[in-house]
Design goal:
With 195 residues, this protein is mainly α. It is built from 4 helices and 3 strands, in the order βαβααβα. A 3-stranded parallel β-sheet has the order 1-2-3. The chain is elongated, with a radius of gyration of 28 Å.
């Protein structure tokens, strides 16, 4: 992300390089490491064309900038009665799996980056909340693993760039030494011929 802390988001006009708040050289802390999209599972079948176009554009932009994408599919309990009765069936449900596959095909997000979620309301028992906590913990663990892998890729790339710089510096020093030896050798030959 190349915006300063106090930059106001403007959905109509994108920030330009000559704007006051634009950062030419953002640090790792300034960059976007992950984009999370949230969508109701029942909206997959009847997305408005304008909304779908806008969402696809956002997904394409993040993909082109190598920003990992995660999609949270909410209200999965309305897709499957078994899930509505028992949250523990969320990851076992064939209907939910089909919706995850549909979302993956529709938006081009890998299935491993799509997380189904159940919304909770009144009347649900404590056991379901405990199961929800377990599932939430698993999702957070997966998200953390995913973010760690992305950070590791970035760190490896930066280390590789630093190694290249060091190697180039080493090569230049080596070349400089060779040139100095040649110059000294030429000076030595000249001084001997003058005698």
């Amino acid at each position: 992300m190349r915006l300063s802390k106090f930059q106001q988001f403007n959905p109509v006009n994108a920030i330009k390089e000559n704007d006051t708040y634009y950062r030419q050289n953002p640090t790792m802390a300034d960059k976007i490491h992950c984009a999370v999209f949230v969508m109701r599972v029942d909206k997959l079948d009847n997305l408005l064309p304008a909304y779908e176009k806008k969402l696809r554009q956002l997904l394409t932009d993040t993909l082109n900038k190598d920003v990992p994408r995660i999609l949270l599919l909410t209200r999965c309990d309305i897709v499957c009665e078994d899930v509505a009765k028992n949250v523990g069936n969320l990851y076992k449900s064939v209907k939910v799996k089909k919706k995850v596959e549909q979302a993956s095909a529709l938006f081009g997000i890998p299935i491993s980056n799509i997380h189904p979620i159940v919304n909770y309301g009144e009347g649900q028992i404590e056991k379901e909340y405990t199961e929800c906590d377990r599932q939430m913990f698993r999702r957070e663990k997966d998200k953390h693993r995913f973010e760690t892998q992305e950070a590791e890729k970035i760190r490896s790339f930066e280390l590789m760039q630093a190694d290249k710089k060091m190697l180039n510096k080493h090569e230049r020093l080596k070349e400089d030494r060779v040139l100095k030896k040649k110059e000294l050798g030429l000076l030595k030959i000249k001084s001997e011929s003058e005698i």
